[in-house]
Amino acid sequence: MSPTKRPNEDAPRAFDLTPRPSRTRSTPTQSNANHGATDDADTTDSQSHRSAATSTSRTSSKAPKVSRNSSPTKQFRNAEIQETGFRTASFDTGGRMASHLPASLRSLLRDLRKIERADGVLPECLRDELSDFDIPWFAFHNAQRPESLPNFTYPPITFIQDVYGRATKCREQRHRESSWNIEVHARVLEWVLRDSGHNGPLDYRYCTTANVLHQYRPRDAPSKMVDFCLALEMKEADEEVVNRLCKQTDRPGYSINHTDWGDLCKHPIAISIETKCPGDSYDEALLQVATWHAAQLRSLAWAAGERRPRNTLSPSAHGIDYLPALIVTGNEWSFVATVPGNETDSRPTVFQSQIIGSTSSILGIYTLLAALQRLRSWAEEEYWPVFKAGSRNSPER
């Protein structure tokens, strides 16, 4: 959730997700709205003319600053023209930005698209149990089809029905974001990362108040937050490496991440999740993720010993090809990814978007659980080894 969201008057204060502007919608940056001042009267016409010209020049040379109350369109435009900003593109491989997609991201995207089509995502042993739910035949895994996805792990059908019922209630009774987060989204993440029998380092944090450290924030960009982070919990030996790195390289907030919220200061963030209610602005969610990722890439550059002026973003810091995120709008879960810049253009590119599942149907919940397991594998088997190697190889100050 972002500071731009409308406050929920009925929600308990415990679920007040992010700081918000006052009802007057005034922020310190709004003082920049007045770009010129009336000059004092001069004693001659020529002096008056010169003074007016100077005032006009001064006024026209100033660009209005964006604030958390600025429209997403204005904030996207600001990001496009800032060296510390970002740009956006589509996953459509026929687009002009297709060459910027790393091979590893293409591979992940292919799997997520196949999962979303429900092509072979369910084990054959569930066919009879799901006979009453109108599941298409091709959704069941067939070992004779080489293109089928590997088997994923799934909870009992009672869990699937429970999630479906919770999501339906939130939708029909127009629950606000905090309810969706607690009743539905956290329930799904809880099973994938804690209750599925998988014993890996990836876990989730409900971190709606995690601010970006100012050293990493893109220039002239309002602070942005996300709702959940999937972080890699380190073993003691790795944690010692991180603590030593944070101290020796004088990292802001002594944090391994771009935020010092809670234990995210020592557990690397792999995947970020921004949530919205049905009908809320997708552009606002994308803007939050893009700003958050731009800051995260700058943090990775610092961790890699590539500390540079604030207006420069180091490309491919740590050897990490991209950062994934999920945008959840009510029932619909979508995948986006941010690719670092290059030597020609240091701005990262945020690619959007691929639906991975939905809590609006039984089959949609199954595909969502499968997609999250695929992303969990990416975080633990691809991202984590590269991150650890980069951290251990970072030079001391």
TrEMBL record:
This is PD-(D/E)XK nuclease-like domain-containing protein. Residues 67-76 have a biased composition (Polar residues). InterPro entries: PDDEXK_12. Signal peptide: none annotated. Residues 1-91 are annotated as: Disordered. Residues 131-384 form the PD-(D/E)XK nuclease-like domain. Transmembrane segments: none annotated. Residues 18-31, 44-61 have a biased composition (Low complexity). Residues 1-13 have a biased composition (Basic and acidic residues).
